[in-house]
Amino acid sequence: MAPIPALFVQSSSSIRIMDVRKTLSDQFEEYGVDISAPVLDRCHDICLQYAVDAEELVESWMAFSVSNNLHEVTLDTLAQMERKEFAKRNSKDVPTPKGLSKQNPKSSSVVVYNASKDPGLEDNILSAYCTTPKRSRAEKRCAELTTPEQYGTKKQTTAGRSPRMAFSPASFSPTVGTPSSKYCTRTNAGQTVTEWGSLPPGATWKTEGSIPGLRVASYAGHGQPTLPAEARYMYERLTTKACVLNDVVDWLGKEICLKHGLDEPDHLKKLHSEPFIGIGHICCDANGRLNPSSVLLEGARGHPSFGISVPLKLTSVSSYALFPGQVVAVEGTNPTGESLVAQRVLCDAPLPLPSEPLKLSTANGPLNVVVASGPFTQSDTMTYQPLEDLIMYVQEHQPHVLILVGPFLDALHPQVTDGLLAQSFNEIFENIVDTLMRPLASCHTEVVLIPSSRDVNHQPVYPTPPYILRKSYPHLHLLPDPALLDVNGIIFGITATDVLMHIGREEVCNPPQGHDRLGRLASHLLNQRSMYPLYPPPEDLNVDLEMWDDHTHLPVTPHILILPSDFRYFLKSVGGAFIVNPERLAKGSAGGTFVRMNIKPVLSEDRSLVNSICAQVVRI
User: What pLDDT does 80 receive?
Assistant: First the structure.
């Protein structure tokens, strides 16, 4: 075959270039925009450089000009649009995720470590991360005007998955799947750091068998509603929020007065030379931290205080512990009508323990429970070694109930915030749950998952709806945060939010170094009948007040209250309830702790389980 004359090739290329220029001119003319020859030349160059067709370029300009209030196309305004709209399309300008080194300029491949061998999953990752996407017809048409070398296909390479990396997600960095050396070299695994009670002689932590008819469900006593997974949030109005806070002050303030036999409350700013009773909730007179001289008492909007606030003088009160949002009844005087001089501050109205009989007897007891709280992986890796070791413990000891409290995929994890993960957050979370449940399929252990507002794959709101999974598991229970869990009549109150730390940062107390601070912080929840009595919350916690009003108030005092916190682990008895802080399963780059409980049948009429519980905090 005779070679095609070079003149013919050059003429064909020139015809295509002329077609692009004519299309650009026609498109601008349709929008009533006049452009000069130099601007038309530059538009043509942009089409070639970024593989966009004339229609897309003109539409991009129109959107850019409206957004930036531009009225004519010049070389300067075109350069502005190019930098903002098209420069990011150039493969040379794609930013490298933090923590990754730049790829070899001669190679256009992106390395994905620990990737799944599922072809469908690889295709999804290939199309989503730093690879050449499928181009539209217009892009292909404009690509014909460029050299093929500019559009080389990038290939994805994968690294193999080691036996100890079942939880590890696909990532753009080998550090994500690299085991933590500090965790691997620990020498205190299995050490008991604190305990409550003792096991009966000859008993061990290994469960002999399942409990027939074991019932694990959300507590439904007193008509307590359960937060649904599809709950809608942040649709509240300011008037609704005000009504919610007002109602809590009104009913809880009256309950406190009733418990202590106090007189009817009166207006907070009314002149009183003799002691009287005022109710309200604690506020701060500024945006800073509460202190003894900045305490305000704000009354309910209805009778008798009509929503007014008054400074609260505490110099005559020998002992108090106050925090914003706390509902109190104050006995004192108001000699000037401007400030309330307190003599007593009362804040406790705890509820009784559940009256329902326990379905735990010597024939089917004791009940073994394991509790662990996230994060479940160290801050320098995503291998989830602590969670994997906990599963091995559960397989060996087979407790009746395993309670895992989020976050599972922490939004604050450095490798999450640096964008090093090559899978969607939902895929990673569902892989964690699947890898967790598969080895426990042959066990009789019931698994309970509590979400956290810090889960990057979940709703960032408190109260937090239950997790949503595409796959179901026979022994898996998904509850909201906070949750009331009923296990054969034993009521567990559980939250993933660090309410102890939040109250502790805002609390003001006298004497300053009060006895048993952690026990006092936990008692606020029981005294205020709420799993989260603090208001306003910290800025990093999004609280929906309508959901808060419906799903955080306690209908009863739980037998066991699980309050994971960054405070040091502890086991305490407060007001007849057993308080558990398991701390975290992973702390920084090291391992943390979990709690195991042995709950013996109650042989007396005492409703409290405090004397029937043996518990230990154990290092993972």
Answer: 86
